[in-house]
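Bumping my old thread because nobody answered last time. Still need a sequence for this structure:
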C-alpha cells in the first residue's frame, strides 16, 4: 500500500537519462537499496533515445529543472538537479553491451521510509517501467545531439561518487 504522502511526492515524476562510461568498480557500487547524496548539480536529459554510451542512469524524479530556455544547446534537453539531492538505486538492467542503473530521487524528509530491505510497491512499479525503457532503447536510434563530445563530457562523472571512488554520503538498510 502506498501512503498518500508518497503518492503526492511522486505523482509528477518523469524519466531522465544520463549516458556515460563507468569503470566496473564504480558500476558495482550501485547496489539495489543504496541511498546516496549527490553534492553537486547533476545533469541529464528528458529526451529519450538509444544508448549514446555503454552505461545509462535512468533517473526518476519530479524535481529536475529544464534549462532549455537558458541553454546554448536547447536540443540537448538539459535538465538539472540542485546540489544535495538524495537518490536510491532501484535496479540495474544489463545486456551484453549496456548497463542501466535506475535511480529514484528521494525527498529528504522521506529518506528513512526508503531505507527498507525490500522495494515498496511504488519502487517496483518504477523498476518495471525502467525495464521497459531499457528494452525500448535497443530499438531506438541514438539522438545525434547526445553523441557529441560536448554533451558526453558533461556526464562523465559518476553520480554520487567522488574521485577516489567512494560515495560522498550514503545509507543502506543495514546502516
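Sorry it took so long. Here it is:
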Amino acid at each position: 500500500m502506498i501512503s498518500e504522502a508518497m503518492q503526492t511526492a511522486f505523482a509528477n515524476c518523469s524519466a531522465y537519462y544520463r549516458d556515460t562510461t563507468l569503470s566496473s568498480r564504480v558500476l558495482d557500487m550501485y547496489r539495489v537499496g543504496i541511498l546516496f547524496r549527490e553534492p553537486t548539480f547533476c545533469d541529464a536529459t528528458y529526451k529519450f533515445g538509444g544508448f549514446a554510451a555503454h552505461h545509462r542512469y535512468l533517473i526518476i524524479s519530479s524535481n529536475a529543472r529544464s534549462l532549455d530556455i537558458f541553454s546554448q544547446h536547447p536540443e540537448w534537453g538539459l535538465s538539472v538537479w540542485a546540489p544535495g539531492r538524495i537518490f536510491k538505486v532501484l535496479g540495474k538492467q544489463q545486456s551484453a553491451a549496456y548497463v542501466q542503473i535506475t535511480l529514484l530521487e528521494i525527498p529528504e524528509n522521506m529518506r528513512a521510509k526508503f531505507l527498507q530491505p525490500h522495494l515498496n510497491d511504488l519502487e517496483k512499479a518504477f523498476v518495471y517501467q525502467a525495464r521497459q525503457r531499457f528494452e525500448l532503447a535497443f530499438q531506438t536510434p541514438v539522438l545525434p545531439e547526445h553523441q557529441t563530445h560536448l554533451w558526453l563530457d558533461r556526464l562523465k562523472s559518476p553520480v554520487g561518487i567522488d574521485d577516489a571512488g567512494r560515495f560522498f554520503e550514503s545509507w543502506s538498510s543495514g546502516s
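Residues 121-138 form the longest helix (18 residues). Let me know if any region looks off to you.
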